[in-house]
Design brief:
Blueprint: H1 11-21, E1 35-40, H2 45-59, E2 63-70, H3 83-100, E3 105-111, H4 120-133, E4 137-141, H5 151-166, H6 175-178, E5 188-192, E6 199-202, H7 207-215, H8 223-244, E7 249-255
Helix pairs in contact: 2-7, 3-7, 4-5
The structure holds zinc ion (ZN).
């Protein structure tokens, strides 16, 4: 028989009951999800972090859209290519890579690579996307990945979390309401590029396709770079795979929205 909440005197029992109340279920976080937004700081991040997962989602009929925050114009050591040229090349590569995974929509906010501002303006731009796309799930880089040194990655994670938190509040960016965009609550939130995964997608059967889709970013992965990056990416997939009990996996961390604010036990999920 279920207890009334005030009758719980043990934290562990109350904690699992609370997760039940929040309908937080890690056995199948994609259950009933129809529209997913994958937020990426640069044109190759969704495929590197989640290429296998994205392929499986689109195969299952789930619509995945990318939200690309910057133009990728700094990602080169070649002195012969300008920022403008590189941004164009990278967008073409991104479209080809996305197509391999069954993704045909890419929304681009076009901030300058390496200079994604941690600003109200950027947060509002993401809120507008969340409200207009009416998403069930948002996937984003974990801004607390230890030693992550790229500011665009940290800013992308934080801005997106703030946007998710404020999208349901009509007084935040009220101009959206006047433009016909209703407040919107994103029900599921998952981090990729995370050191604290709590869910694993077995990507063993799509690993080669994932690598092909990563490699579609030819400006980023020359033969010389790929010599190190292929082993690097396979090792990451084996790392998550070992935790998940399969060969190759992608690790995600799903969180109840409520636990992303003032919560001392968020890491227990
Ligand atoms: Zn990146």
């Amino acid at each position: 028989m279920a207890l009334a909440f005030e009758e719980y005197d043990d934290f562990d029992e109350a904690f699992s009951k609370l997760l039940e109340l929040l309908e937080f279920d890690l056995s199948d976080p994609f259950k009933d999800v129809e529209k997913v937004l994958c937020v990426e700081p640069h044109p190759d991040d969704c495929v590197i972090g989640l290429g296998g997962t994205i392929r499986k989602l689109t195969e299952g009929g789930i619509e995945v859209t990318y939200l690309l925050l910057t133009d990728g114009s700094m990602g080169t050591t070649d002195e012969g290519i300008s920022d403008h040229e590189l941004a164009l090349v990278r967008m073409r590569e991104e479209e080809e890579s996305a197509r391999l995974l069954g993704v045909d929509r890419i929304i681009q906010l076009d901030y300058r690579d390496t200079e994604l501002p941690y600003s109200l303006e950027a947060r509002k731009a993401i809120i507008e996307v969340i409200r207009s796309e009416k998403l069930d799930m948002v996937l984003l880089p974990d801004p607390w990945l230890p030693y992550e040194s790229h500011p665009d990655h940290v800013a992308a994670g934080k801005l997106t979390l703030e946007a998710i938190a404020f999208s349901p509040l009509p007084n935040v960016a009220r101009q959206d309401l006047h433009a016909g965009l209703k407040p919107h609550q994103v029900e599921r939130i998952g981090f990729y590029y995370t050191a604290k995964p709590n869910y694993f997608v077995d990507i063993t059967d799509v690993m080669e396709l994932k690598l092909k889709a990563v490699r579609a970013h030819r400006s980023q992965f020359t033969d010389e770079i790929w010599e190190k990056w292929e082993p690097f990416l396979r090792t990451i997939a084996l790392y998550y795979g070992k935790m998940g009990g399969v060969k190759y996996a992608e690790g995600l961390r799903f969180m109840p929205g409520l636990f992303l604010h003032i919560t001392p036990f968020s890491e227990l999920v």
